[in-house]
Design a protein that fits this description.
Elements (H helix, E strand, L loop, with lengths): L3 H12 L3 H8 L14 H8 L1 H25 L5 H15 L12 H8 L4 H18 L2 H20 L3 H16 L1 H9 L11
Helix pairs in contact: 1-4, 1-5, 2-3, 2-4, 3-4, 4-5, 4-6, 5-6, 5-9, 7-8, 8-9
Length: about 200
């Protein structure tokens, strides 16, 4: 039996652990009912504070990293298994079975997943995110730019490998999950980090 199916299933289940939801609830907030309603670290930051946001970010990233590391251990000769595990973990975060398939937008989990697979590209993605955030203070724009930069750098460095295709598919998922943000950007109503909500 191929190990790919249990690896992908396990990565999905690991990715679907709703750490942002759990962290916010520990701080007395149901993140689904405040702010943007998104089950992700940014909404935790805005609704439950910096400590909660930082913890949610770290845990969401860690589950992506762990899914890929475990896949590499379970299938040490496979280049496909860790790449599929990365996508599955991000998909699990976005569509968690535990929260009726309503989850976050996958940016932190994606970064954690691709950090061991393409560390330089991941660093480039973080740099692009930070620079864009400093310039715009808009998290959604920064997330899309950062994820797109990561995927582009993987293709530049490695060519059309399983990891590169996994990164391309992941950034597509990230952009799709940001479609409501893109609509608000188009209308000029997207919120900026640190701005007071009226």
């Amino acid at each position: 039996m191929s190990p790919l199916l249990p690896i992908v299933t396990g990565a999905y289940l690991l990715g679907s652990i709703p750490f942002s939801f759990l962290v916010a609830r520990a701080f007395g907030v149901d993140v689904r009912r405040v702010g943007s309603g998104n089950v992700g670290a940014t909404n935790v930051l805005r609704s439950a504070g910096r400590r909660a946001g930082a913890l949610a970010l770290a845990l969401d990233g860690a589950k992506g990293l762990l899914a890929v590391v475990l896949a590499a251990r379970l299938a040490p000769t496979s280049t496909m298994a860790p790449a599929l595990a990365a996508v599955a973990a991000v998909f699990g975060h976005m569509y968690p079975v535990w929260l009726r398939f309503v989850g976050g937008k996958g940016v932190a989990t994606g970064l954690g997943a691709f950090a061991p697979l393409a560390p330089l590209a991941a660093a480039g993605g973080v740099a692009a995110f930070v620079l864009t955030l400093l310039a715009t203070r808009i998290v959604s724009v920064s997330s899309i730019v950062g994820a797109s930069t990561l995927a582009t750098l993987v293709f530049v460095a490695r060519g059309a490998t399983p990891v590169a295709w996994a990164a391309a598919f992941t950034v597509t998922l990230v952009i799709v999950k940001h479609r409501s943000n893109v609509r608000r950007l188009w209308r000029g109503t997207e919120g900026r980090l640190g701005a007071k909500r009226g």
